Amino acid sequence: MLRRRLLSGAAALTASASLLPSLTGTAQAAARAASPGLPSSAEITAVLRRVADQWIGAHTDPGDNGWANATFFSGLLALQRLTGSPRYLTYARNWAEKHAYGLSGGVTTRHADNHNAGQAYLDLYEIEPDESKISAIEESLHRMVYTDQPDKNDDWWWDDALHMAMPPFARIGVLRGDPRYGDKLYALYNHTKRLEGGPGLYDAGTGLWYRDKRFLPGGIVSPSGKPVVWSRGNGWVAGGHTKTLKVLPPSERHTGEYRETLTRLVTAAARVQRTDGFWNVNLADPAHLPGPETSGTSFFLYGTAYAVRARLVDRSAYLPVAARAWNGLVSTAVHPDGFLGYVQNVGDRPESSQPVTYDSTANFGVGAFLLGGTELARLAGS
Questions:
Q1: Fewest CB atoms within 10 A around its CB: which of 222, 226, 258, 347?
Q2: Radius of gyration of the chain (CA)
Q3: Do the Cβ atoms of 350 and 295 come closer than 8 Å?
Q4: What are the phi and psi torsion angles at 220 (to 5°)?
Q5: DSSP letter at 163?
Q6: CB 279 within 8 A of CB 272
Q7: E runs forming strands in 171-261
């Protein structure tokens, strides 16, 4: 059962500063271990196809346009760009057309989750340009930038929001050559990072993020009294930064900060990687519901592989981290038929949707796996 502990002053600072060192024993040993072999790009792609094909075959109805399913389509379209598969393009196009390229909540929505579908719509627009495909996501973001309380910047109160909405703001801004989108993106981001809940959700001492203000020092802790730093929450952050950096030019004035923040996150995550390649659901307490978990691990794979490709981190030191994650996922979570297991389902903390088992799966977990794997396949081929 969750318990709360009130920490203040020096005690809160101590809790924050000790977040990572308490974990580094076996994790550092794992990081120093001989790096596993990285499969070829073709071998990685074959596994990705198996996982994608299994999901599509089991879901003839492509589903809703909420954040979870939109994450799957983001991953599927990343694989489509890698392979050129007409089947994946058709499946994604049918999904988008089913929803008329619209947003849950309509164009007046400010909720980051509702903007996530815009990422897949922008992908489809890039493949087959048609302004109608991005009219809803563009109008919704335009309202936030120009007409609907443009000075309100507290919409992203949880760290998942960075994955859901950072990339659409960046992409529309670059597409239209309008720096106001980048400015608004940063204002929203800065609130999440430095202001939400008082100090912000970013722990500058570790490079990791709290899921929301309830988990800040003085709030929710693990059963053993350690901080709760949710793996998938940090994975969402890694994914949001990665997708944003893929589109922003180096000259954009906030690119440097996004690069530095992702680098710190990838570095911090590497320190607490498990010997089997996975990450625990609570990065700050390996005894808190231990076991393999696919969604957070896949997003850390995505961010790490990108960081290596973009030369944000040293290839010789961090390629083994990505390879361990991939090999662990394939050997432990991928069923022979391509079903992807050990995905923690919808929630906001380690206790959510437990137990996580070999047969636990979810659309967003498959999407995260496809994103991480496609990035690794590109890295293996470079």
A1: 347
A2: 20
A3: no
A4: -65, 135
A5: H
A6: yes
A7: 202-203, 208-209, 220-221
Handedness of CA 14, 16, 21, 23 (dihedral sign): positive
Residue 170 · residue 128 · CB < 8 Å: no
- Judge whether 325 and 297 are in contact, CB under 8 Å: yes
Closest by alpha carbon to 335, among 53, 64, 25? 53
Phi-psi region of 156 (alpha: psi -120 to 50; beta: other; left: phi over 0): beta
Q: Which two tokens stand for residue 130?
A: 């048609």
Amino acid (1-letter code) at residue 310: A
Instruction: List helix spans (H) across 99-134.
Output: 112-115, 117-127
**CA dist., res. 167 & res. 133, Å (int):** 16
For CA atoms 174, 178, 179, 181, the dihedral sign is negative
Tokens of 127: 């493949």
pLDDT digits (tens, 9 = 90+) for 288-347: 999 999 999 999 999 999 999 999 999 999 999 999 999 999 999 999 999 999 999 999
